[in-house]
Input
Amino acid sequence: MSIKVAIAGVGGYGSMYVDHFCRLAEAGRVELVAAAEFFPEKWADRIEKLQAHGAKIVKSADELYDLGVQFDLVGLPVGIESHEPLTIRALEHNCNVLVEKPLAGNLQSVKNIIDARNRTDRFVAVGFQHFYEPACQKVKELLCSGTLGKILKIKLMGRWSRGDAYYQRNNWAGRISGKHSLILDSPFCNAFAHYVNMLLYLASSGRDAIAVPELIRADLSRSRDIENFDTGIVQLTADGIPATVMLTHCCDTEFAPRLVMTCEKGTVIYDEATTWQVYDANGAALDGFDYTGRANHTFMFDAVINRLNDPSQRICTPELARAHVDLMEQIYKKGEIKTLSADSYTIRPEDGVRINNGLAEAWDELYKSL
Output
């Protein structure tokens, strides 16, 4: 029996879902039945690609379920505010779901999704693609084995420039709330969300668990005219382990996300620009933990399809995505956002990127000291 899949939303990041579902269809692993897109003319190339694989195109997610097809999986690369209602709608139509990160904008929405998942006995996989990388899972196993001893401290820094186009690409970028629920879009919630979630996942000593975050302090600022922050230094504990996270979109000199976990008997490093690195107490590299590819989306989509026939296949469940939402909500409730004065930053004329004066140099020094 073929695995029937559908996509709701093919614009923006939906291109990743289009590409991988088409790849899986070409490999004979799925039947790409349908896709919903309100503005099909805007994404004509993607629509044409879907139709070439036999997908029927409809205007809305509701129309997917009017086709009389029982989908095995529905992909939801949609805006944050739509995650809860569209996930629950798919579950109630007896469909499994792959929904993009973050799972939701608030903990109540996460609870509602989990409750619906439990009622319907389907699964929900969350699109934290780094979770699905074999190297990430090997590192998790290593940390849980006790080989490196206890984790003593964690630090994460990332600087990615984001200009006017990024904040104008949809109606929720940089927003705190939408019409119906919290969104809490920020560098922590979107572009760097994968690394925040990975920090929490690896910090837990449970093989299939994620650490509980407790916010200590949040220094937040914005130089753009947005509701939420575009720069933040957050101190927290993850299952009691001290951690510092430094993320911004207001920079000229970029810094690929780098996660460092200092342990009693070694060190774990993830660097988006290079690879995984694991060292013992003497600084010697452990074999078998390097991974330099950029195929993490392939791992994710393959894993979710495998899960349809193999309940033992690990996926990022709502429970494993909840901690990230928990931290976002704590930052929202306890953090105060400082609006920077115009003389505190410059604007790059070609793309509107804000560059906070002196940030790169100051952050590099702070990161080294942590």
Remarks:
- The two ends are 54 Å apart (CA to CA).
